[in-house]
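Minimal example, chain plus 6-O-phosphono-beta-D-glucopyranose.
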Amino acid sequence: MTDSPELTNNPLRDARDRRLPLIAGPCSMVMFGVTGDLAKKKLLPAIYDLANRGLLPPSFGLVGFGRRDWSHEKFAEYVHECVSQHSRTEFREEVFAQLRGGLRFVQGSSFDDTPAYEELTRVVKELDEERGTGGNHAFYLSIPPDAFPKVCSQLANSGLNSPDGQSWRRVVIEKPFGHDLTSARELNDVVEKVFRPEDVFRIDHYLGKETVQNLLALRFANQMFEPVWNAKYVDHVQITMAEDIGIGSRAGYYDGIGTARDVIQNHLLQLFALTAMEEPITFDAAELRAEKEKVLAAVQLPADLGAHTCRGQYVGGWQGGEQVRGYLEEDGIGPDSRTETFAAMRLDVNTRRWAGVPFYLRAGKRLGRRVTEIAVVFKSAPFLPFQTSDTASLGQNAIVIRVQPDEGVTLRFGSKVPGTHMEVRDVTMDFAYGSSFTEASPEAYERLILDVLLGDPPLFPHQREVELSWKILDPITEYWANNGRPSPYRAGTWGPDSAHEMLARDGRSWRRP
Ligand code: BG6
C-alpha cells in the first residue's frame, strides 16, 4: 500500500511512520449531559479535534440530549462556541461546517421523559437515512451516576440499545463508578442489564494520555529497564498526582467524595497497575486486563492504616502569587466537612517481583504545583569505591515517568563533578515529548472517543478492575470515616505534616517534583 500524496509530502511527518491512521467508520454519538462542563471543555473540543485530524467519518452525527429549549441551530451555535474556545488544534470554519451538518438536539424535560426518547429514536433514524450513519450509535453518559438507571431503562424501552444486523450500539460511562464496592456493583448491574459487557466503555481519561501509554513502551519495548524493574533493584515507587487548583465550582460533586474516591480509585490505581503488572502476552484488551487485575488482586494494605495512610484538607494560603481560600470556605462547602482534599497511602504487592517494595501513592488539590509522575526509586549502590568523595550527597537512581506537564522521562544517576576530586553528584538525563517528536500529543479524550467509535477496548478499565480498586480503597475510607478529621495543610504546600511523617516512619521522603 502506498501513502497518499498529502502524507508523503508533509515535511513534519516522520518518514519512518508508515502506518495509516485509523479512522472511525460511519456512526453517530448521542451525548447526555452535553451542556455540562466536561462536554464543554473536553468532549466537544475532542470531537472537533478528531474531525480536524480527519479521523471521523464525514457523515458523523452528534446528538445532544438536554433540558434546554434549543433548536438544532442553537445547539450548533453552542458547539461552535465551545469548540472555538477549547479545541486543541487550530479552529477551521470549513471543518466545523462539515461537523455542523450532523449536529442535532433533542430536548428532554428530564432523563425520564418518554416522549423525548421517542424523538431521540426518530432523530437517530433520520441520521441513519440522511447521513448514512449505518445504525451505529454510541451513547455517552456524561451525567451523575444516579441518573444512569433512568437513561438506561429509557434506552432499552425505546430499543436504542439493540443493534440491528451488522450495526453496533455502545455506551460510554464516566467515573465515578460508584462510591464503594457495593454501589459499583449495583451501578454495573443497571448498565449491563441494557448493554452487553463488551459494549460498555468505562472512561478513565488517564489511560488516554500518551505518557501513560508510553509507560508500556518504556517497560516492554526496551531491554534495559525490565531486568531492574523488581524488588532486587527497586527500593520503592512513588506515584504522585498533584494539582494546584482547588475544587472550583465542583462542591456538589466533590464534597463527600474526596480525593481517594475522585482520583486514587481510578487514575492512580491504574498508573500503579501499569507500573507493577507483569508483561502481557499481547496488548489485546483481555490480556492487558488480566495482568492489571492480577496485580490489583495482589495488593496488601498496611496492617496499621493510621501509620501508613493519611489525608488532609487545604486551608487558605498563597498560590501562584494569589491568596486562595481554604476548602471549608469554598462555595457550597459546610463548615464541618470532613472531605479530604489530599490522600496518601502505602500499598505493598504480594508477588515475587515486588515483595518488600512499597508503592506510595499521593494525590491532592492546592498543592505546590500541577504535576503527575511515577518515580521508580532504586536501592543505593551496594559499595562505593571512591576514597576521596563526599558520598553523603549521592542519592538513589531513579526513573521518573513525567505524565504531565512537560511530558517525558527522566533518569537520575550519579556523575563525576569536573575537577581533581572524585566527587559524585546526582544529575538527570531527560527525554521530552516536546523536543523528540514534531507532532503534539492528542488530548486523552480524543484518543478515547476515537477508540469507542472504533470499538477498541484496551484503554478502558473493565468492571473487575473497578471492583478490585474499590476492594483496596474501601477499608481505608472506612478507617478514615471512623477516625477523626483530615489534617490541615496550607494551600500551595506539599500536603499535611502527616504525609511527610508517614514516609519518614519508613526512613524515606517524598520527592519534590
Ligand atoms: C478528574 C477529577 O478525573 O481528573 C478531577 O475528577 C481532576 O478532580 C482531574 O481535577 C484532573 O485531570 P487532569 O487530566 O487535568 O490531570
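Residues 258-276 form the longest helix (19 residues). The chain is about 35% helix and 20% strand.
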